[in-house]
Design goal:
Shape: globular
Radius of gyration: 14 Å
Strand content: 5-15%
Number of strands: 4
Length: 123
């Protein structure tokens, strides 16, 4: 995520919208890449993932996740610390799980945008 920590002077419009949604996600909750694209009404999970990879360091990047709840490869421990700090629901890993890292408990962690009705997602 180091390369994501600095933003250029001007972001592409789509990137600005993706990052704005990431900033709306409350602590302890997550949206999938596909959820963000659906909420915006444009793009798809890969486009959202690309934006997060390039520019996400300036927003709570750990709140935009894979749909299967697997922690972001290469950033698992940093994300896990944030999830624990924020009280994000986790499913603890069994002893047979590779690396014994938990996954997000998506049913309890996923945010549907409730409470953000006053924000216009389609800009």
């Amino acid at each position: 995520m180091d390369r994501m920590s600095e933003l250029p002077d001007r972001l592409p419009d789509y990137a600005e919208r993706v990052l704005a949604v990431a900033e709306l996600i409350p602590p302890g909750r997550v949206m999938t890449y596909g959820d963000v694209a659906e909420w915006l009404g444009e793009g798809g999970p890969r486009q959202v993932g690309r934006v997060m990879a390039l520019y996400g360091g300036a927003v709570p990047w750990w709140r935009v996740v894979r749909a299967d709840g697997v922690l972001l490869p290469g950033h698992e421990l940093r994300a896990l610390a944030r999830y624990r700090e924020e009280g994000t629901p986790l499913r603890e890993a069994g002893s047979s799980s590779e690396g014994h890292l938990p996954r997000l408990a998506m049913r309890g962690a996923r945010w549907d945008g409730t409470g953000a009705e006053d924000v216009t997602p389609h800009t």
